[in-house]
Design brief:
The protein has 16 helices and five strands. By secondary structure, it is of the alpha/beta class. The protein has three domains: 158 residues, P-loop containing nucleotide triphosphate hydrolases (Rossmann fold, 3-Layer(aba) Sandwich); 39 residues; 118 residues, Zinc Finger, Delta Prime, domain 3, CATH 1.20.272. Helix 13 crosses helix 14 and helix 13 packs antiparallel against helix 15. Bound molecules: zinc ion (ZN).
């Protein structure tokens, strides 16, 4: 997907309030993945660096704004997991110490963005604690944290937390229509993304219907025969993003099964997998259900936040759990 150029409209009120007064030296921007926090944070950074407008507003004209747009602002530091690694190391935090305590190149603010915050190692957290406790003048920390991912309390307590809410379905639809024009996949994409606009945008442009149809077929086969276990583990492993989405659908399927069991099928997340969730509701008992849900969600969190474990092996193990508990062939 093309990168966002400006932060999405649903963050406007938060942006306005920060643009009127950004007095704190460290912020944690916390919210669900895929709602536009990264671009929002960059705009706040640009504003803090801009030499003509106060607080977190930017003019888009000054030298600082130009440097920022070209990606070579000398007082801007973006810390993210190193390539091929899933963590932010203590060395990356150590490398900030010099610029932090020296004066800025352009004589104004210095901004340090860490994204995502939860990817820092324990040692990296310890190292940055002192910086957050006694921040040097004119230095700002903007820390991005995905909701549900834990960050030590010692870090949180030294920052101002800003909660970034998910936009409504209507907001997403308006925004996507402006960006993508009329796209017949929009409603399905929004539904399947669970109201995460960036994910929905990506889905709307992909062959989402085929992906979903294949998913339903693959899971039905898994339940019916279990014979495709190795095959689908290999198939799903080829595209990690799609794989994570499909595992999320597996979890949703279990939740729908619960809705059938106890709520007479009201408020189902998905109608198209109804035959499977009805079947599961009949077949599975509560213990097995919670066991599978836990296994499935653990798998999802592990891969969603990045792990070095081998995808195909782990997937196969998950499918075996499913096949043993809900498979017809068991
Ligand atoms: Zn400017």
């Amino acid at each position: 997907m093309k990168k966002l150029k400006t932060s999405p409209p649903w963050f406007e009120p938060i942006k306005k309030s920060l643009q009127e007064s950004s007095n704190h030296h460290a912020y944690i921007f916390e919210g669900a993945k895929g709602i536009g926090k990264s671009i929002f944070t960059l705009e706040i950074a640009k504003g803090l660096l801009c030499s003509s407008l106060p607080y977190a507003s930017f003019c888009a004209q000054c030298q600082s704004c130009h440097f920022f747009d070209e990606g070579n602002h000398p007082d801007f530091y973006l810390i993210k997991p190193e390539k091929e690694k899933k963590q932010i190391s203590i060395n990356q935090i150590r490398s900030l110490q010099e610029p932090l305590y020296e004066s800025s190149f352009l004589g104004a603010n210095k901004v340090f963005v860490i994204n995502p915050l939860e990817m820092m190692t324990r040692a990296a957290f310890d190292a940055i604690l002192k910086n957050l406790e006694e921040p040097p003048n004119n230095s700002f920390f903007l820390l991005v944290n995905h909701r549900g991912e834990s960050v030590p309390l010692t870090i949180k307590s030294r920052c101002t937390k800003i909660s970034m809410n998910q936009p409504t379905k209507e907001e997403i639809k308006t925004w996507l229509t402006e960006r993508l024009g009329n796209n017949s996949n929009l409603d399905l994409a929004i539904l399947l993304s669970k109201n995460k606009p960036l994910v929905a945008a990506e889905l709307a442009n992909s062959e989402i219907e085929i992906l979903r149809t294949n998913f339903i077929k693959e899971i039905s086969d898994l339940i019916k025969t279990g014979s495709n276990l190795v095959e689908i583990s290999e198939l799903w492993s080829k595209n990690e993003k799609e794989m994570i989405l499909k595992v999320e659908w597996m979890s949703d399927l279990l939740m729908d099964c619960l809705r059938h069991k106890f709520l007479s099928g009201n408020n189902l997340t998905y109608e198209d997998s109804d035959a499977i969730s009805v079947y599961l509701a009949d077949k599975i008992d509560s213990d097995e259900f919670f066991y599978l849900l836990e296994k499935t969600n653990t798998f999802w969190s592990l891969f969603n936040s990045g792990t070095n474990l081998r995808t195909d092996y782990q997937l196969q193990a998950l499918f075996v759990e499913w096949s043993e508990r809900v498979g017809l062939a068991r």
